[in-house]
Amino acid sequence: MRPARRYELRGLVEGRARGRLLVLHEPISFYGDVDPETGRYVDGRSVAGRIIVAPAARGSTVGAYILYALWKHGLAPAGIIVGVVDPVLVAGAVLTNTPLAQGVLEGVVDGEEAELVVEPPRAVLTVHPAS
């Protein structure tokens, strides 16, 4: 069994999250990419309880409200990691108490179990090997 992998990140919104990674290869926009009623990303995968890993967030000012709607419906992601931060995403994460970190991650795989601990200005993502 492989040992757990740790990634040092920039912490933006404090909190702890545990869940499976939802790895995206394109920037995420909560407005248009995620259905606030179902919690489904455009490709059909659920964001609920997942730690989203994306290269960037692209925004619409409505994005923070979509994240809030997901939270109200119990469908919010457990945490979010992006390479390039959008201020609207930060506002949405603060509004919903969603841990948010910034960093580029190499070698993470969709579906891996992970834990994100954000204590600004630092954050650590620990990816646990599949058993």
Quick summary:
By secondary structure, the protein is α/β, with parallel strands linked by helices. It has helices at 30-33, 63-72, 87-96, and strands spanning 5-13, 15-23, 51-56, 79-84, 100-102, 113-119, 122-128.
What does this structure look like?
There is one protein chain. By secondary structure, the protein is an alpha/beta fold. It has one domain (5-128): Phosphohistidine domain (Glucose Oxidase, domain 1), CATH 3.50.30. It is 18% helix and 36% strand. It has three helices and seven strands; from the N terminus they run E-E-H-E-H-E-H-E-E-E. The protein has helices spanning 30-33, 63-72, 87-96, and strands at 5-13, 15-23, 51-56, 79-84, 100-102, 113-119, 122-128. A seven-stranded mixed β-barrel has the order 1-5-4-3-2-6-7. Strand 4 (79-84), helix 3 and strand 5 (100-102) form a beta-alpha-beta unit. The N and C termini lie close together (7 Å). The model has no long low-confidence stretch (mean pLDDT 95).
Rounded Rg:
13 Å
CATH architecture descriptor text: 3-Layer(bba) Sandwich
Total tally of structural domains: 1
Mean pLDDT: 95
Structural class: alpha/beta
What is the count of helical runs? 3
CATH topology: Glucose Oxidase, domain 1
Q: What is the makeup of the main sheet?
A: 7 strands, mixed, barrel
